[in-house]
Amino acid sequence: MIPKHFYRCAVCLDKNAERYLLVVTYFYVTFIIVMGVFNRFVLQATSGWETETALLLFIWLSWIGASLSIRRRTHIRIDFIYQYVSDRVEGLLYIFSDLAVIVFCVLSFDAFVPVLQASLEFGSSLVTLQLNTAFFQVAVPVGLTLMVIRAIQMMILDLHAVLKGKAVYQGEPLFDIDEEGVA
Description:
mainly alpha
């Protein structure tokens, strides 16, 4: 039997893993950019590694953020249709949407593998950091895999809601807007 504290930790990571990764990575990117600006304008010393590092970590931020947006259902979607259909049809539309995300991710993963293999095979490296580009390119398949995992999780939740005749999880608002239309 799984210990209770381990289960709680696993649930917490499932709900917040991307958020934790995003906070740490965003803090690091911000620190690197501030350090680069300080070096350039105060110390009059320039270095390319700050820019390269911040740019490449931003790629990781984007893919991790895409996974989080699927988990929280805050990704861009056309949702005006949902107010005109029943809960059951809405759930089926969400399931279809999740299936479309999975198909897109699988096709993208398949198309990106040769790019990653070429980087590993030919040893292409970044100019300033002297790191293999595969180190940062691996963000794409990792992000796509996280997106597939989150889409499957959402699809299972939607399927349970449809089978029980309940409303599906519609996501969390990115911005809370009051009656006056102010965020």
